[in-house]
Amino acid sequence: MGKGKNNKRGDIVKAVKEVATRYKDYLPLTLRQIYYQLVSAGIIENNKSSYGGLSRMLKTARLNGEVGWEWMEDRTRYKHELYSDRDANEYVEWQKEAFLDNYRRDLSQSQPNYIEIWVEKDALSGLFKPVCDTYHVPLVVCKGYLSVSFQHLYILRVEAARRNEQQPVVLYFGDFDPSGVDMFDNYQKCFPENFGVNDIRFYRGALNLEDIELYGLPNDPDAIKTSDTRTKEFTKRFGRYAVELDALPPDELVERIKETLFNHFDVELFEEQKEIYHEELVRLGDMRETAIQAIGF
After folding, report:
1. Which of 39, 100, 160, 164 is the 20 to 30 A CA-CA neighbour of 236?
2. According to the model, what pLDDT value does residue 78 have?
């Protein structure tokens, strides 16, 4: 029996290594992403016990060196630290390197749409950031229903976009379950109800019902709760099959982010801004060299 357990453990560790190799361009992954890849491959069962067992197994595997630390991440805990220099000389060197070297032009300023990408979970934000940073699109981690404080701050951004003659657009990515669907519906209602703003355009990038069928995504057995008041409406519209966004393979999710963005984003205008930016960087580089020589760094 013990030998059987060891064989099973070996199979799981091997499968995790295969997942890490397959998605090496998207590392680090979260525990939940790895879990759903193993469920989809039929390596482990889809339940709380399997998830907890995988968590404990991967803890041991990382401590033993069987699984790389860089393969996984925990985005729920942060370190805050006040920046400081060792001494004045280090500060001067840093200032020299940074002088006129941190300019970043807003490459989305000429877009007809002011776009924000909203994602339900912080755990997946690592897959969104590279795309958002590349195209200068703000990324918002919602973490559930929106407080009125957040709503007010977004309205201020909407007003700034209007002054720039841009149409506000929100691209949402969340779980396909009673909460994830209801939250998206709630987002569309709260701004007209609380601020009288009716012109924000909302689009759901993922997950959608067709994604579940297209990719054969595994059901989240804990998402449908009879005690949840949102369950009745969800099951009436979609049935009892619910899926987490984490279940979508990382490469497919990144492609979906880009696809959804490009439906509302003018790439030609973006490239024009990049050309202007490049010219500005050359000019700033010349100014930097002249100034550094004059100061005598």
Report:
1. 39
2. 72
Confidence of residue 136 (pLDDT cuts 50, 70, 90): very high
Question: 107 is in which domain, residue-wise?
Answer: 89-111+266-297
**pTM for the model:** 0.88
Residue 83: inside a domain, yes or no? no
- Within this chain, do residues 233 and 279 fall inside the same structural domain, yes or no? no
d(CA 132, CA 139): 6
Instruction: Give the mean pLDDT of the chain.
Output: 91
Output the pLDDT for position 80: 77
Q: Do both 163 and 292 map to the same domain? A: no
- Residue burial 112-150, b: 16+ Cβ < 10 Å; e: rest: ebbbbbbbbbebbebbbeebbeebbbeebebeeebeeee
Give the contacts of 288 (CB within 8 A, at least 6 positions apart): 99, 100, 101
What pLDDT digit, counting tens, does each position of 266-279 carry? 999 999 999 999 99
CA–CA distance, 115 with 171 (Å, rounded to integer) = 7
Q: What DSSP string describes 134-193?
A: HTT--EEE--SSPPHHHHHHHHHHHHHHHHTT-EEEEEEE--BSHHHHHHHHHHHHHHHH
| Contact (Cβ atoms closer than 8 angstroms) between residue 132 and residue 112 | no
pLDDT over 70 percentage in the chain:
97
Q: Bridge-partner residues for 141, per DSSP?
A: 119
